[in-house]
Design a protein that fits this description.
Number of strands: 2
Strand order of the largest sheet: 1-2
Order of helices and strands: HEEH
Number of helices: 2
Helix content: 55-70%
Largest sheet: 2 strands, antiparallel
Radius of gyration: 18 Å
Shape: elongated
């Protein structure tokens, strides 16, 4: 998990929240990270939609 966090920090998709306590870190999305996430969700929704169409065609 820490490897992924390091990559997301390096890409500036997340940042360490100032309010984090010493035992647990809290990370928040940057505006760039939010854009990337929204685009990824959009792509995944399209993939699901296309898969559903494919499944319907198999049944018919």
């Amino acid at each position: 998990m820490y490897t992924i966090i390091k990559k997301l920090l390096k890409q500036e998709w997340i940042y360490l929240h100032d309010g984090s306590d010493s035992r647990r870190n809290t990370y928040l999305l940057t505006s760039k990270g939010k854009e990337i996430l929204e685009e990824d969700v959009k792509i995944r929704k399209m993939m699901i939609h296309l898969a559903e169409i494919g499944l319907k065609e198999e049944v018919e």
